[in-house]
């Protein structure tokens, strides 16, 4: 590696100043390089010396005043108060905090920028107010600068002033007065801000104007982009012989005016006239032919996975290394992907990416929902999010109980008074009565979190820091809110989120050991043997947007204020300087095109690849293409423990086999194994759409209630008597829905939205069933009704050449005798269906087959067979009441061969018995394993989908890792 910049600085300091550095001030843009320069000074001197004094630029300038620094929130509330005073003086209505807040941030930002760059406040804002004064007020500007200003004004006023424009014109006229009053108010309170400190120093208004006299020499190290105040002060101190400047630059971009990376240092040296204490810059980049490793990942997060593999292979602890985040949103994924490399992170762990923000945000959303909708209920998703959050510490027992109750009762909303479980945040769901209670209540939540964290054996310092900073910010907001009119909960929450979002906590380690993690801006002045730059995408490096401002680009150019091109130049410099020193350069970018990425590397990379002698070695992460492979299919052999359980359950213990179990096997033998042998049950859940099985249960039970009074009647009952029950259907359905969801429902007003839909559908289906009976039959007699206990039947099968028995089990919905309009009496077995079943089939051979064409027919013949064998009754016609289709298709099964009645029915019943015997023998044939039928349609609601659709992918992925 080339000699590091700070090593060169340390050597020059020794040469210039000898051993006494006690009256030397060394100033950096940020704190990070101070530790490194101290080490290099110790290495250069090799003995004890009087240390220089180290400062950041803001700490150094702060020596010029005794005033305290005003907090950002404090400045905002001061600005709001003064602005409303000015409105009152103009005879206008005061603005609410909600109205003023969106523009306050922009006003404060613009005030700060205008101070840093010493722009005359009155001039620039009056220019925004009236362009007729351009010729008089801006005679000192060049024609080009005046043209920029005119161009802006013409584009603004060409269409005349709307109401909004008129409001802004008045605001711009008011802003110079607002600026002056704001500064006066801060001064009277003994407060200041950094833009004011800078401007006061330049205008000789600082309380301690000669603070630099305390130092024999001031060394400014590694500065690049200077604002106008810094440039003026630096030039002044250089002329006084007080200041030296160490610029970290390379002639590759410094001497070439087309290279944007050198823009600011060229300006500092050639325009401002600052002298580089290190002399002329070498051409390091232009002469290097090293290899640069460029990695295109298949996704944003994949960059960190690629980095893991590279770091695992590079174990040279003698070399220094740094991970530079062009995209600082990659910090958390990076921390989750790092190998054991002893990281030191000063980028700061952001509150917004921590579990703490998640729980605070959930609290705010809960109380926003409660306050806006004026209700005492919250959604089940909120409850599930809360109980599953690691910081709430809800016990596993309570979690399972809550999830089961929500699923069983299908509770889409839960009343606050019904929340009874222990957690680390007992006040979380306590309603806020008055808007003024919002922040105190949130502070209570923060205190509970602090107590909960401190109760652990090992305090999590990062979480502790984040919570303490959050509490400070909330207290500042609370003080500010006390000075203004009552604010809505929604606005307070919006402001709280904005105020706490910037909070972060440094993860401190040893900055001189291990791998360093930082943003590109923090890497100023620092050099490493190996650098790994993450997020080097176009649009991120450089960024494509600037901070919001009221000052348009044309005026910014005219007054020399920062523009987007300045940001590009700074980003280019921060990127290029690592090519001066580092030997191992690894650059990662997201090569995947999606809604947040163009999939292109930064143009800085393309520029260097085209112009320099570096060898860019591109590596593209490949997404493994998975192919179907029979060796990865899930196949369950009937041997060992599997066969032992099957034999014990079904042969020895006579576990019952239902019609549903039979059709499950026909659809997927693997699912039969998972469900009926392995007993893998679907976990309790709640659906945003009501469950069809619940609807079916409600309809079956209500139909039973209607027909139950007629069971075992010896005489036939006229079907028109069913008409009298129509007015009872709705109340029956409401009570049944309440029973199914384990809630008390007395009327339709107690139903939630999905239950109302279920009520409507169930009532319509039941009426349809009854109307069908009334229209097609004169009278009926109920033989059996909803019997799920009495119909079990031993059935012989062959197992390993030996006759064994299994037990069949039938649930009989309804068996009746009906009198047709031509006075025929028909015995029927009736099955109700609410889904997409049909009475139509094409070929009976396709019904009596795996992946059966008509599952309902198999099930109904199964019920009929069990009933006939148990009771001795014969010639039962299978009827299927499919509510969606019975008006068009009827209720009798029919195919190409005919309708299942009379002799055709008797023949097919015999065929069914043979088919049943074959299938049961296959199930218990040890030579035939359980495997999924690939021809079966898989429905999204199938709880076993992942087992037989995704399992092979999981296996392949595990093998490829």
From TrEMBL:
It holds the Pfam family PDDEXK_1. It comes from the Bacteria. Residues 656-933 form the PD-(D/E)XK endonuclease-like domain. This is PD-(D/E)XK nuclease superfamily protein. It comes from Sphingobacterium detergens.
């Amino acid at each position: 590696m080339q000699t590091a910049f700070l090593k060169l600085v340390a050597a020059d300091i020794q040469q210039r100043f000898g051993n006494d550095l006690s009256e030397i001030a060394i100033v950096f843009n940020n704190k990070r390089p101070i530790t490194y320069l101290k080490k290099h000074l110790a290495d250069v001197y090799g003995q004890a010396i009087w240390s220089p004094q180290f400062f950041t630029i803001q700490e150094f300038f702060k020596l010029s005043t005794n005033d305290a620094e005003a907090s950002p929130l404090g400045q905002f509330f001061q600005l709001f108060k003064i602005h409303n005073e000015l409105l009152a003086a103009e005879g206008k209505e005061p603005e609410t905090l909600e109205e003023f807040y969106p523009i306050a941030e922009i006003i404060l930002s613009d005030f700060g920028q205008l101070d840093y760059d010493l722009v005359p406040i009155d001039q620039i804002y009056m220019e925004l107010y009236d362009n007729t004064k351009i010729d008089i007020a801006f005679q000192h500007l060049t024609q080009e600068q005046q043209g920029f200003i005119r161009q802006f004004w013409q584009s603004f006023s060409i269409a005349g002033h709307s109401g909004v424009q008129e409001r802004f014109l008045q605001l711009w006229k008011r802003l110079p007065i607002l600026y002056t009053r704001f500064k006066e108010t801060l001064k009277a309170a003994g407060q200041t801000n950094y833009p004011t400190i800078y401007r006061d120093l330049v205008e000789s208004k600082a309380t301690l104007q000669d603070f630099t006299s305390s130092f024999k020499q001031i060394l400014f190290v590694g500065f690049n982009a200077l604002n106008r105040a810094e440039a003026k002060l630096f030039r002044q101190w250089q002329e006084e012989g007080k200041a030296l400047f160490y610029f970290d630059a390379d002639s590759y971009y410094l001497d070439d005016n087309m290279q944007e990376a050198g823009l600011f240092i060229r300006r500092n040296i050639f325009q401002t006239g600052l002298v580089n204490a290190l002399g002329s810059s070498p051409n390091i980049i232009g002469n290097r032919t090293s290899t640069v490793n460029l990695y295109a990942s298949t996704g944003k997060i994949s960059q960190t996975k690629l980095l893991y593999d590279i770091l695992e292979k590079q174990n040279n602890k003698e070399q220094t290394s740094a991970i530079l985040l062009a995209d600082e949103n990659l910090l958390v994924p990076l921390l989750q992907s790092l190998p054991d490399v002893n990281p030191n992170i000063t980028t700061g762990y952001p509150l917004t990416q921590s579990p703490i923000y998640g729980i605070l945000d959930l609290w705010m959303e809960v109380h926003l929902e409660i306050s806006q909708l004026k209700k005492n209920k919250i959604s089940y998703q909120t409850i599930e999010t809360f109980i599953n959050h690691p910081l709430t510490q809800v016990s596993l027992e309570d979690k399972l109980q809550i999830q089961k109750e929500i699923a069983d009762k299908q509770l889409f909303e839960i009343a606050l008074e019904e929340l009874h479980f222990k957690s680390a945040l007992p006040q979380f769901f306590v309603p806020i009565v008055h808007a003024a209670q919002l922040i105190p209540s949130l502070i209570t939540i923060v205190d509970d979190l602090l107590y909960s964290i401190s109760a652990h054996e090992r305090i999590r310092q990062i979480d502790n820091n984040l919570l303490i900073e959050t509490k400070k910010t909330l207290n500042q907001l609370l003080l500010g809110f006390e000075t203004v009119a009552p604010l809505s909960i929604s606005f307070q929450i919006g402001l709280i989120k904005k105020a706490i979002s910037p909070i972060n906590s440094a993860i401190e380690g040893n900055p001189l050991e291990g791998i360093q993690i930082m943003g590109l801006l923090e890497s100023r002045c620092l050099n490493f043997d190996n650098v790994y730059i993450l997020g080097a995408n176009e649009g991120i490096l450089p960024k494509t947007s600037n901070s919001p401002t009221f000052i348009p680009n044309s005026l910014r150019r005219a007054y020399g204020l920062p523009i987007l091109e300045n940001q590009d130049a700074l980003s280019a410099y921060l990127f290029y300087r690592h090519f001066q020193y580092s030997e191992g350069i690894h650059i990662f970018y997201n090569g995947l095109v999606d809604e947040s990425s163009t999939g292109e590397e930064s143009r800085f990379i393309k520029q260097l690849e085209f112009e320099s002698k570096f060898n860019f070695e591109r590596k593209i992460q490949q997404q493994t293409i998975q192919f179907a492979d029979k060796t990865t299919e899930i196949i369950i052999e009937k041997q060992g423990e599997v066969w032992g359980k099957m034999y014990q359950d079904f042969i020895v213990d006579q576990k019952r086999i239902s019609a549903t179990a039979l059709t499950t096997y026909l659809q997927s033998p693997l699912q039969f194994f998972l469900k009926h042998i392995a007993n893998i049950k679907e976990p309790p859940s709640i659906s945003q759409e009501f469950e069809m099985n619940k609807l079916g249960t409600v309809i079956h039970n209500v139909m039973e209630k209607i027909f139950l009074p007629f069971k075992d009647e010896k005489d036939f009952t006229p079907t028109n008597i069913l008409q009298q029950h129509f007015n009872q259907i709705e109340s029956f359905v409401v009570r049944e829905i309440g029973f199914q969801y384990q809630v008390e429902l007395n009327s339709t007003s107690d139903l939630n939205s999905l239950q109302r839909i279920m009520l409507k559908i169930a009532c319509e289906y039941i009426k349809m069933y009854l109307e069908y009976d009334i229209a097609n039959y004169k009278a009926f007699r109920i033989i059996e009704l909803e019997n799920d206990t009495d119909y079990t039947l031993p059935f012989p099968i062959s197992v390993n050449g030996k006759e064994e028995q299994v037990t069949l089990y039938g649930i009989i919905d309804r068996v009746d005798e009906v009198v047709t309009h031509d006075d025929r009496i028909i015995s029927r077995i009736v099955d109700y269906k609410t889904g997409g079943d049909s009475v139509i089939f094409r070929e009976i051979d396709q019904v009596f087959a795996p992946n059966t064409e008509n599952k309902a027919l198999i099930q109904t013949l199964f019920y009929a067979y069990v009933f006939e064998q148990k009771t001795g009754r014969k010639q039962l016609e299978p009827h299927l009441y499919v509510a969606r289709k019975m008006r068009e298709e009827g209720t009798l099964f029919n195919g190409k061969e005919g309708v299942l009645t009379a002799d055709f029915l008797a023949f097919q019943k015999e065929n069914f018995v043979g088919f049943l015997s074959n299938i049961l023998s296959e199930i218990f044939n040890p030579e035939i394993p359980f495997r999924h039928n690939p021809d079966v349609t898989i429905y999204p609601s199938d709880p076993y989908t992942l087992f037989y659709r995704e399992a092979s992918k999981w296996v392949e992925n595990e093998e490829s890792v």
